[in-house]
Design goal:
Length: 177
């Protein structure tokens, strides 16, 4: 498809926009793009001997743009789908114990009960209790230890999928399109 911009310009502009709005997400995209791809190469040693090895090479601008869009799609579409699925599965589980289920020798009976079908709080531990320094080099103590995953409306997810479909057409640099 013919565009008035290159894949490299589109990627640069995407990173600029992300950095202005959400530096953590921009950092995730940048790390993914800069990780490169593994390739396998062979090297002839003598007449019959071949040596195979792997090495990491940078993505082409088109590949890097695709990787960036894949990271964004995972963030805006796949993660909400995962959270909604988990909420659906957890809603079917009862939490706690009934008074009849308690052991007779238990003196202190603390019964917390949430019935099947009730919405539960779904949290992911992003920082362990023992973590002092995060992997980014910043003190971990200034960040929350858990991330609450809320249910996302199906309409919002469908809108994000439509946005990505449109964005893919804007960033398709193949000759066939």
């Amino acid at each position: 498809m013919k565009h008035e911009y290159t894949a490299e310009e589109a990627l640069r502009r995407l990173i600029e926009k992300l950095t202005a709005r959400d530096q953590e997400l921009a950092s995730e995209v940048t790390v993914a793009v800069n990780s490169g791809k593994d390739i396998q190469e062979k090297e002839r040693r003598g007449k019959k001997s071949l040596r195979f090895y792997r090495r990491t090479v940078p993505y082409s601008p088109e590949e890097a743009l695709k990787v960036a869009l894949d990271v964004l799609r995972a963030h805006f579409v796949e993660q909400p789908l995962f959270a909604n699925s988990c909420h659906g599965n957890m809603a079917q589980a009862a939490i706690g114990a009934n008074a009849t289920d308690a052991f007779p020798w238990e003196k202190k009976k603390q019964i917390v009960h949430t019935s099947s079908g009730d919405e539960k709080i779904f949290e992911i531990e992003v920082q362990s209790e023992t973590e002092i320094v995060s992997t980014g080099g910043r003190p971990a103590l200034q960040y929350p230890g858990t991330l609450t995953m809320n249910r996302i409306s199906e309409d919002s997810i469908r809108q994000e999928e439509a946005n990505f479909s449109h964005l893919r057409s804007l960033t398709d640099f193949s000759e066939n399109s």
